[in-house]
Amino acid sequence: MLYLLTHTVPRDSPLKERMKHIKHPAKKDSLVRRKMEFQLPGLYLLTWNLKLSIKHYQRLPSLADGNMASIQASVKNKVRETTGRMVEINVDERLILPFGNLKVIVQNYNSILTLSHLYRSSDALLVHENDAVHKICAKLMNIKQISFSDINQVLAHQLGSVFQPTYSAEGSFHYRRNPLGDLMENLVPHPEFKMLGVRNIPQMSENSLAYSTFTWAGLLKHLRQMLISNAKMEEGIDWQIRPPLPGLPSLSKMSLNKELHFNTSIANLLILRGKDVHSADLEGFKDPALYTSWLEPVNAFNVWRTQRAFSKYEKSAALVSNSQFLVKPLDMIVGKAWNMFASKAYVHQYTKFGIEEEDFLDSFALLEQVVASYCTL
User: What residue ranges are annotated as transmembrane (predicted)?
Assistant: First the structure.
């Protein structure tokens, strides 16, 4: 049975209030999602070890790209359905969050449908924001005419700073054999929280690099403040934001309609590369005030190191975080999509291809829950 909307529902009303404006709702627990039949396209890469275990499966789709992102989500589900009881699956996904001001009218529909699908079928989602990457190109790399190649180069730098080889343990000279599995073990302690973000420092143009020197104390001080203030780059960091004092309510425990300030983390993974990595002081990242109360800092913070420099930086650090960083942009995407859906704008373009209104409502419900869960950390 379809949901029939009578009029537009305000964005600021919670999901239960929104449902009051819907006639004849089908039972949420009985919604049946249509399954697509397809063949695996050649551009997807599945790598197998000798035990027929899928070690990783990856592509970088934009959520706004309806065709490729939906195929990606469907392939992901098909892999799990086909191999779930025969092999061990370790799935990690990398996503590009679309530009907030992009004039693609249905990009928010595509985003919520794809993200909700992938959230169910993936173990972790490593999310990049196009707006943040574009600012890095403009402000840190000093690029005047920013091209797709420039954006891709920044994304490649961020991914490389995380997935280039690191030593498997303190004092070890053996590299990690399964970095994706280690990443999820360190950062995804609960299946309800899967959103991962990446921050890098330093990141600058070659001209600026020639006149720059770095210390671990300076790099980690800036990186820590980037984390707690939810800054995507070191320029423009808000130094006024501080972790909440013990005994006071966290700023993160606010209603969805109020802006989050302090960025509470579930878990953080710090990757250090370059000269004197073992001399870096990491105590700032072990502060219990940075983390949710249900996970001890000893379990919430991990560090990977290697003395091999990355790119042209003598010292560099990357921070992969499972935190509240995506609450505001995700809530904005869901809100825009809901406003369109409540007036049934462009819904017919999806229903004629088999995507029903229950699928939209299912996606809204899941992503509203994701936002609410991260807000209550």
Answer: none
* CA 301 – CA 22 distance, rounded (Å): 44
Weakest-pLDDT range from 126-130, 258-262, 264-268, 328-332: 258-262
* CATH number for the domain that contains residue 121: 3.40.50
pTM, entire model: 0.75
pLDDT (tens digit, 9 = 90+) per residue, 309-328?
998 899 999 999 999 999 99
CA distances from 174 to 170, 304, 307 (A): 10, 12, 13
Which CA distances in Å does 233 have to 41, 202, 361? 36, 9, 35
Query: How many folded domains does the chain comprise?
Result: 1
Domain that holds residue 317: 4-375
Beta bridge partners of 124: 92
Cβ neighbours, 10 Å, residue 220: 22
Residue-wise DSSP of 122-157: -SEEEEEEHHHHHHIIIIIS--SS--HHHHHHHHHH
| 69-79: burial string, b at 16+ Cβ within 10 Å, e else | bbbbbbbbbbb
